[in-house]
């Protein structure tokens, strides 16, 4: 699948920062039971790659990817761990080149129209808008919908169940990313039932 097909699988992509490897598989299974099949494991912890590898190997119904990918080396590490896509908070020319060469579906991050245009020139038509809440939010996405009519976005950062429907109502929003479906306290308590309920609510959000 390309990145657009992956984004179409669910309205919300959980952004997961996993602190304990033992939490990885039960967390993924709870989210999948709730209807969220696409998961982003951020490369922000020492166990992130092993957590990604465990989910890829033990949860067959999930499409697992790596987030916070900052360079070509991390991109290759993620691919070897079983990632089926990668996400960056921003994108350098070197990272864009490495992503294109890897063949791994890639969601590069942008904050500005100039960054979006630069990535569009490289063939990327679905972009992560990050951090959405402080970079213009709904207003920015509405403003760019006409001049950047060929582009779609996955806004991430400051999005929760309260404002996700407003983002998802926009025609240029393919999906949203968020960590609210796996609260840190629920993961720490291994409260998979609570996480499954949050996933159900997120999976039931509507898109145009």
Instruction: Count every beta strand, where a strand is a DSSP E run of 2 or more residues.
Output: 9
**Proportion of residues in β-strands:** 15-25%
The CATH topology: TIM Barrel
Mean pLDDT: 97
CATH architecture: Alpha-Beta Barrel
Keywords:
single chain; alpha/beta; globular; three-stranded parallel beta sheet; TIM Barrel; four-stranded parallel beta sheet; 208 residues; 15% strand; 10 helices
Q: Could you characterize what this model shows?
A:
- It contains ten helices and nine strands.
- By secondary structure, it is an alpha/beta fold.
- The protein has a single domain (3-203), classed as Alpha-Beta Barrel (TIM Barrel), CATH 3.20.20.70.
- Helix 2 (21-33) packs across helix 10 (192-203) and helix 3 (48-58) packs parallel to helix 4 (72-81).
